[in-house]
């Protein structure tokens, strides 16, 4: 499937759009194909971050791909198999496009990110997710899934192997996180307590802050020993290990997307002691921040806008 080929053949009816809108606006940006990766990785055919206003609707024929659609603001509707589904704020739709469907705006403006994707492993993921109901999910406000969708929206549409690897990684992370959250929510024995979810969300968003176990104990009104024990049980590592891992993950992206110096990156992620930052970074990645930065081709720097600077 290639969206550059005769777009009108994919339309079940003419779209309802304002006079200044191109007929294929719903597809977003078309992505270059790469014959060496497209059959091996999860690939994006078309997509991006869009803003829609009245009138706005699309009716599409069956397509040989999947649809990933995240609504940030506003409200859309999906007509699918004689049902109508609400695409409200913070909902994520993961849909197999093998049947006719119609998408339309309900509340303007409708700000959303959409991606048409393909890849053999998506069949496996979709079958698993289908066990947990229709593939429309409400995401927590600070979900890491939202951040990965933002990364995709800022990504390059060129066909380089590097770009394809980034796209595939973010898409796999999005779908695997969605699958794990669905599994945990369905199993009361493994369901993560609300206070642990809140603590993890705090680390994901406010990673640059300094925390002590005594402060966390007071904030969550739970023994610090219980906090550590239950956090490790549900997330596989201690709170501090998770927080430092998150900081290093953000630091890697900052080294890729900015020209900040090593000590500046450390401060931005909440580690003011440069030697300690270098130690943690090398422990996590196997190389120092400077070595990591030098190994990245200059052409990739500034390819994405920084996502994490507060």
From TrEMBL:
Pfam family, one: AraC_binding
All copies of domain HTH araC/xylS-type, residue ranges: 197-295
Keywords for the protein's UniProt record, in alphabetical order: DNA-binding, Transcription, Transcription regulation
Gene3D superfamilies for the chain: Homeodomain-like (1.10.10.60)
InterPro entries reported for this sequence: AraC-bd, Homeodomain-like_sf, HTH-like, HTH_AraC, HTH_AraC-typ_CS
Matching PROSITE patterns: HTH_ARAC_FAMILY_1 (PS00041), HTH_ARAC_FAMILY_2 (PS01124)
PANTHER family recorded: ARAC-FAMILY TRANSCRIPTIONAL REGULATOR (PTHR43280), HTH-TYPE TRANSCRIPTIONAL REGULATOR EXSA (PTHR43280:SF2)
Name of this protein: Helix-turn-helix transcriptional regulator
Species this chain originates from: Kineothrix sedimenti
């Amino acid at each position: 499937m290639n969206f550059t080929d005769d777009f009108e053949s994919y339309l079940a009816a003419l779209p309802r759009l304002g006079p200044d809108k191109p007929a294929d606006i719903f597809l977003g940006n078309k992505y270059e194909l790469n014959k060496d990766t497209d059959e091996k990785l999860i690939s994006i055919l078309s997509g991006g971050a869009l803003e829609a206003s009245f009138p706005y609707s699309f009716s599409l024929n069956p397509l040989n791909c999947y649809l990933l659609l995240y609504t940030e603001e506003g409200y859309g509707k999906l007509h699918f198999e004689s049902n109508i589904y609400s695409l409200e704020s913070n909902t994520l739709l993961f849909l197999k496009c093998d049947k006719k469907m119609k998408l339309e705006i309900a509340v303007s403006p409708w700000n959303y990110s959409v991606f048409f994707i393909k890849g053999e492993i998506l069949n496996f993921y979709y079958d698993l997710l289908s066990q947990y109901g229709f593939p429309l999910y409400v995401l927590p406000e600070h979900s890491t899934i939202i951040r990965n969708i933002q990364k995709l929206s800022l990504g390059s549409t060129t066909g380089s192997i590097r770009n394809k690897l980034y796209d595939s990684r973010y898409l796999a992370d999005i779908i695997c996180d969605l699958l794990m959250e669905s599994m945990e929510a369905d199993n009361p024995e493994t369901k993560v307590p609300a206070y642990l979810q809140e603590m993890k969300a705090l680390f994901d968003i406010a990673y640059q802050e300094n925390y002590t176990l005594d402060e966390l104990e007071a904030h969550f009104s739970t023994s610090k020993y219980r906090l550590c024990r239950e956090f490790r049980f549900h997330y596989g590592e201690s709170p501090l290990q998770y927080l430092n891992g998150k900081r290093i993950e953000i630091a890697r992206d900052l080294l890729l997307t900015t020209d900040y110096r090593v000590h500046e990156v450390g401060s931005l992620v909440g580690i003011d002691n440069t030697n300690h930052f270098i130690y943690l970074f090398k422990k996590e990645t196997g190389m120092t921040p400077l070595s990591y930065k030098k190994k990245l081709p200059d052409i990739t720097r500034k390819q994405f806008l920084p996502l994490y600077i507060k």
